[in-house]
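Structure first, sequence second, as always.
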């Protein structure tokens, strides 16, 4: 008998909870059920699937291959059901729902204040923010674990609708006592001089890493990497200690610049500006709450970023650019 004829939402929800939490007892606590009741739901679903979905191990529960497959579908079915309820509530005049946003690690410095502003204006909206490296966020977007993604450039491997909503300043930074700061008192620092320095960079695939590689390539100069780090915080600490020249998003070091722990290197076109993009899958119809936050970013994102960086917003709003990034 086909699975779809006898499986229930309750069984799927229970199974997904066990899969997500890795434990029958944890799932029982979350769903306010007894452990035997959870086991009964799982057994009924396994009977419908005609195959084991879970394997007990010494440390808890492990999904079988069939369980991994079914959990992906269960998550999507449950998300769609939740989304349908939220859209019906919106149709009835109650603006609520869960805003599911993914952001690259650099964006975690600028996005939370915007989310707070948006949530305060829409108190019935819940926010679910996931932060990861670029590849992780692209996978979340592709798997529909998030509705919106915030990153520095649209992914070429996915067909998305992407909108540039704000400028993204990136800069070369040093400790105030660095030798280049002393040299800069008489003249601007050049890219040729930077090519002789140890440069502190993020890992391959990150937005700042791609940008700095392009800068040195365009200047026909070698990029001498002093350290490759997956953490902006680690780069800031090493730079402040005088280990080398950092290339970072300005969003990550507002406090350090204000405190005089780090200094902006005096040189032409420093900082440089790129764009922040908000994007969603071109094939996906966005929930109302995601559409509202996308509009919030496009209309007010630049103003919010100017406020965070302590800058004065421009007199006229910048026109957002929309494009479809195709695989």
């Amino acid at each position: 008998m086909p699975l779809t004829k006898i499986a229930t939402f309750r069984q799927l929800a229970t199974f997904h909870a066990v899969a997500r939490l890795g434990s029958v007892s944890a799932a029982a606590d979350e769903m306010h059920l007894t452990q035997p009741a959870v086991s009964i739901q799982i057994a009924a679903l396994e009977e419908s699937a005609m195959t084991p979905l879970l394997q007990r191990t010494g440390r808890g529960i492990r999904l079988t291959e069939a369980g991994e497959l079914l959990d992906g579908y269960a998550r999507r079915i449950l998300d769609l059901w939740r989304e349908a309820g939220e859209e019906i509530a919106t149709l009835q005049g109650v603006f609520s729902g869960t805003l599911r946003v993914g952001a690259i690690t650099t964006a975690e410095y600028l996005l939370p204040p915007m989310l707070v502003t948006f949530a305060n204006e829409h108190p019935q909206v819940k926010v679910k923010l996931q932060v990861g490296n670029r590849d992780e966020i692209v996978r979340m977007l592709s798997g529909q674990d998030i509705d919106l993604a915030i990153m520095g450039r649209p992914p070429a491997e996915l067909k998305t609708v992407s909108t540039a909503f704000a400028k993204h300043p990136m800069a070369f930074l040093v400790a105030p006592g660095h030798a280049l700061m002393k040299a800069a008192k008489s003249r601007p620092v050049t890219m040729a001089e930077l090519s002789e320095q140890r440069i502190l960079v993020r890992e391959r695939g990150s937005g700042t890493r791609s940008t700095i590689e392009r800068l040195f390539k365009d200047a026909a100069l070698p990029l001498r990497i002093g350290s490759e780090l997956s953490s902006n915080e680690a780069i800031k600490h090493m730079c402040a200690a005088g280990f080398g020249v950092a290339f970072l998003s300005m969003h990550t070091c507002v406090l350090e610049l204000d405190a005089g722990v780090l200094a902006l290197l005096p040189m032409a076109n420093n900082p440089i500006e790129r764009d922040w993009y908000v994007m969603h899958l071109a094939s996906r119809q966005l929930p109302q709450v995601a559409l509202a936050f996308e509009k919030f970013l496009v209309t007010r994102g630049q103003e919010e970023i100017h406020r965070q960086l302590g800058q004065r917003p421009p007199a006229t709003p910048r026109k957002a650019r929309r494009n479809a990034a195709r695989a």
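Margin note: The longest strand covers residues 160-174.
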